[in-house]
Amino acid sequence: MELELTSGVMATLLEEAVRAHPLECCGLLLGQGAAITAARPVRNVHADPAAHFELDPAALIAAHRAARSGGPQVLGYYHSHPNGLARPSATDQAEASRDGRVWAIVAADSITWWRDGARGFEALPTRVLPG
């Protein structure tokens, strides 16, 4: 499956990582099917945000409620790795729910895209559209 996303989504992820540095940023990837149309920053509520992320549960619940009311679907999540490695960490691997959602990992000036599947993370190809 190839993800489609806009250059605006890419810019949001990069900007959020820079803004949060040296802490990890995190947020939601919203859209429909294989098209990510928005990235929504969410507060990182983890006790050690320099090395881990945890989405604010209230924001996640609100996004799922909005989706049930006809809003964009929660397709996945994003977070940054201030250490500069744009790949799933050992912590990401251990804490992933294997629910098939998309994960974007931002490090330095790059973003990698992954599917959190039953057998672990698999890299996803992407197509970036204007916008």
Please give a structural write-up.
The chain has 131 residues and is α/β, with parallel strands linked by helices. The protein has a single domain, classed as Cytidine Deaminase, domain 2 (3-Layer(aba) Sandwich). 24% of the residues lie in helices and 37% in strands. It has 3 helices and 8 strands; from the N terminus they run βαββαβαββββ. It has helices at residues 7-20, 57-68, 90-95; strands at residues 3-6, 26-32, 35-42, 73-80, 102-107, 110-117, 120-123, 126-129. It has an 8-stranded mixed β-sheet with strand order 7-6-5-4-2-3-1-8. Strand 2 and strand 3 form a beta hairpin.
What secondary-structure arrangement, pairings included, does this model have?
Elements: E1 3-6, H1 7-20, E2 26-32, E3 35-42, H2 57-68, E4 73-80, H3 90-95, E5 102-107, E6 110-117, E7 120-123, E8 126-129
Parallel strand pairs: 1-3, 1-8, 4-5
Antiparallel strand pairs: 2-3, 2-4, 5-6, 6-7
Assembly level: single chain
Strand order of the largest sheet: 7-6-5-4-2-3-1-8
Structural class: alpha/beta
Give unreliable regions as ranges. Answer: none
Percent of residues in β-strands: 35-45%
Terminal CA distance reads 21 Å
Supply the CATH superfamily name.
Cytidine Deaminase, domain 2
Major sheet description: 8 strands, mixed
**Would you list the SSEs in sequence order as H and E?**
EHEEHEHEEEE
| Helix fraction bin | 10-25%
Rg, Å, rounded: 14 Å
What is the class in the CATH system? Answer: Alpha Beta
Tell me, rounded to a whole number, the average pLDDT.
95
